[in-house]
Amino acid sequence: MSQRVLITGGGSGIGKAMAESFAAQGARVFITDVSETVLAECPENWLKTAGDASDPAHIRDVFARIAAEWGGIDVVCANAGIAGPTALVEDVEPEDFRRCLAVNLEGAFLAAKYAAPMMKAQRSGVILITSSNAGINGFPNRAPYAAAKWAEIGLMKTLAMELGPFGIRANAIAPGCVEGPRIDGVIEREAKAKGTTPDVIRAGYEAGVSMRSFVTAQDIANMAVFLASDGARLVSGQVIPVDGHTENPDPKV
Fold it and tell me: What family is this protein classified in (predicted)?
């Protein structure tokens, strides 16, 4: 029987790569995204809906639709997130801090909250949270993002403990710098804050990775498919970095 997979933030970037990879394995895919534009560009045979991952009513409606359409859920990828501000902690506005935590952390919480009863009833399921190596190492000039990503790991480990007796696994994937528009924006903002160029910042990031390379969205998707498979049937409560090994999370430039 094909897996039934929900991916929040599934319209672009890591989320879309996950959706494509699960679909290629024969899974039925449901994606949510805040952008109707990116959803319109996704395959017609995917279930999809636009909304804010941190909105309880939206996520509740998503799971009501899953129950009606599929009668259950096998994999939930709590992937929706935002980069948050790039600034020293004293320069971060409280509302920007709260918004970053809401989308990243509360979004993951809501996905797990509504998935748990459904998965408990069927005594199986996989919850995957997209954290970050910022949730392992910290990230100067990105306090809201690092705080959210550390908290996601605490949430995941608690889910693994609460849900394990019901045959449900929970893990977090910790990407390094993922090629794409989001990290490009972060690099540009950091370069401006430090009075240097984006090329210098990018080189500094790459120098802090053993494999001297950024990762791709497909690298993250490959790990998600594995963690949702029977090959990972006893992998739970774990943080799996996919980052080429971060040696130095704060390369000086």
Answer: Belongs to the short-chain dehydrogenases/reductases (SDR) family.
